[in-house]
Amino acid sequence: MIRITSSLLAKPALFIFAGLGITLATTGVTTVSLYEMRLDAMAQARDAATNLVLSLQKETERNLDIYQLAMRDVVTSLESPGILQLAPDARRLVAFNAANNVRELGAIFSADAAGNDILDSRWVLPPKLNVSDRDYFQVQQQQKGTGLYLSRPFVPRLGNSEQPSIALSLRLDDTNGHFAGVVAGTLRLSYFHQLFEDAIIGVHGTLTLLRTDGTVLMRQPYHRDDIGRTLAGGHSFPPLVQSDYGTYVDVAVLDHIERLYSFRRIGSYPLVVVVGLATKDIYAGWRKRAFAIGIVTAILDVLTIMLSLMFSGQLRRRFAMEHQLQTLAWFDALTGLPNRAQLSKETLRILTDASRNSSQFAILFIDLDRFKRVNDTQGHSAGDEVLSEIARRLRNYVRGEDVIGRLGGDEFLAVLQNCDVHRAAHVAGRILQALYRPITVNAKYDTSVTLSASIGVSLYPHDGQDADTLLRNADMAMYKAKSTGRNQVHFYAPVYERQAKEQLELEIALQRALQARALSVAYQPKVDVTGTLRGAEALVRWNDEKLGIVPPDRFIAIAEESGLIAELDAWVLDEACRQLAEWRIKGIDVPNISVNVCAADFKSPDYPGFITHTLQAHGLEPANLILEMTERVMFDESLDDIRTSLDAIHALGIALSIDDFGTGYSSLSYLHRFAVKELKIDKSFVRGIGVDAMAESLAQTVINIGNVLKLSVIAEGVETQAQRDFLHKHGCLMYQGYLYSPPLPPEDFALWVETHRQQTPVRESR
Ligand code: C2E
Ligand code: MG
Ligand code: MG
């Protein structure tokens, strides 16, 4: 647990992420709660508006009911027969008895069919008035059964009040049912004003009383001009008349302020009361709180991010310092190479790997010869330059998996993984060559020095089982190299010494032979069941003036290791093609030539181009050439480059033959993938025919595979007729071997073709 936490803490970026995370989280939570608070404010306002409108509606309805009852009393009294017999004062007394109770609401009066005001609840008799021009009179006159009618607002003609009023009217009928006049009650709109006055509606709130046709009867805050205006055109009007109550948000027609409106119809009256609470009032409290909370959150967020940046910055600096310290501890300051401590760590790791995989590795102890002289004559900074340059060169001579470091002074150490004596000798030889080139130390004066080195080599496991022993032995070998003349490589074990020496000698001699064109090519016939010549295999030969005949099995490996193989193969290919062309001119018919190639050849992207060029140069066809390669080629690590070349070669129409088939990692899939034409049964299987049942069955298997995949199968190393017959019996129809001919120099091969042509019919008739 502790380790997890500390390793998490070890990532500076994590602090920044955490800071950002916290900031995002707090901002998110704040936003959501502010949003909820806003919703709450609206919900509360909605409740308040609904409650207010309800209580206003109740109050208004109750009063209007009382008023209407009083008016109906008047109607009943005035319509009762006999009332007309009474004197006007008595009539008033009878009729307006009930109206006394509603005096604070307004006056009730009656008019006759002509509209003349005949009776009035007010005891002070009004001057004669005629109301026939009023809408409430005209509506009742024209439509029987209108019931209670609510008039448009008007300014009463009686009294000195300028205050607008409305009238409620009922129709009077005579005993025959004809229009006899109206009973009307005038209601001062200031009554509603008083009623609405105490309602709490906020700074920008409104209270409105409307007729259902949209006429404004009263509006709070009060503006004289609002009375009588109509809202019927506004988009919020339809909901007001479509249902008895409701709430909605809208921008007011009259003052363009957005409000939450709650409305309610007043009982059965054609009236609607509307409470409007301005949204800016509703959200005023919320806005103040949101502002405060927002500021606090922002401050906290900024603080969090600053802290996380600070922490991560500190951590980063600490890591940088630790990294620097580590570099100092494990790497050499001058050359940047691993130092002694790092080297012994790495050696231990390589040793563990090698003992686990039972593989070999080599330690090269490299000591510069007479380095002290550079320091003494050119100065220390020149010495430093030399060491840096040497380090740079050394780095070029090891593979990625190898380690090269500086032990101190002029001593370097290379640890080469998966390395046998041959590679060790090869790498050490290369290093000696590389170091021996001049090094410019003082560019200004064009001074340069040339240094040689002495290299001691020890090999695991032969020369030691542990790192200390191996190092000590490499050191001893290095002293031996120094004491026997410097600028040379010494192996700790004498056996290796000899092998390595030979290796180096061969490498150098081969290089010389290649340059001097001292190699030659021998040709071995390939024949079919009738013994007819079907082609020839080109095999390189090296007869060295000092070393004598060196067999290909020895020098091909060295050529591969030292990188000379590509040049060698290119030469053989060209020479074989030249030879084939020459034979043709001389009338010696050889259908095709097989040339051995290896993985390194294919790695060059120019290889297919080179082959085309060579064929053309000698006037040959692609069908005249067969490339023989061992299965190893297919499994080389950089298969991709090889595949490109193989595909290109196949596209050219050049046949591929798999040499020594069955001895490698035979896999049917690649035979298919690379459009192989021919399989060559390895000579070890052929040698086993008649002797080794296992070898026999392997030979048979190869033949079967070839037949199934429709590839031609050729057996190499056929020495006896018995071998040839066995192969023939099992379906192998092409042969190569001493039974027919050993590989021959070109002139002998031409001779063989000549004599063989004459012999073949004899062989056929046998
Ligand atoms: P390989 O390609 O399998 O060649 C066949 C080898 O069998 C040749 O050995 C040949 O001389 C030998 N041989 C032929 N008939 C018989 C026989 O009846 N009995 C026995 N015991 N051996 C027979 P050589 O010439 O020594 O070549 C050895 C290997 O070196 C070749 O094996 C090939 O892999 C390689 N090689 C030869 N020339 C070249 C070349 O120009 N380039 C490359 N890359 N490799 C080459
Ligand atoms: Mg071959
Ligand atoms: Mg072979």
UniProtKB/TrEMBL annotation:
Stored SUPFAM superfamilies: EAL domain-like, Nucleotide cyclase
InterPro entries, alphabetized: Biofilm_reg_signaling, EAL_dom, EAL_sf, GGDEF_dom, His-kinase-like_sensor, Nucleotide_cyclase, Rev_trsase/Diguanyl_cyclase
Gene3D superfamilies membership: 3.30.70.270, EAL domain, PAS domain
Protein's UniProt name: EAL/GGDEF domain-containing protein
NCBIfam families, sorted: GGDEF
Pfam families assigned to the protein according to its UniProt record, in alphabetical order: dCache_1_like (PF22588), EAL (PF00563), GGDEF (PF00990)
Sorted UniProt keywords: Membrane, Transmembrane, Transmembrane helix
PANTHER family referenced in this protein's UniProt entry, alphabetically: BIOFILM ARCHITECTURE MAINTENANCE PROTEIN MBAA (PTHR44757:SF2), DIGUANYLATE CYCLASE DGCP (PTHR44757)
Segments forming domain GGDEF: 359-494
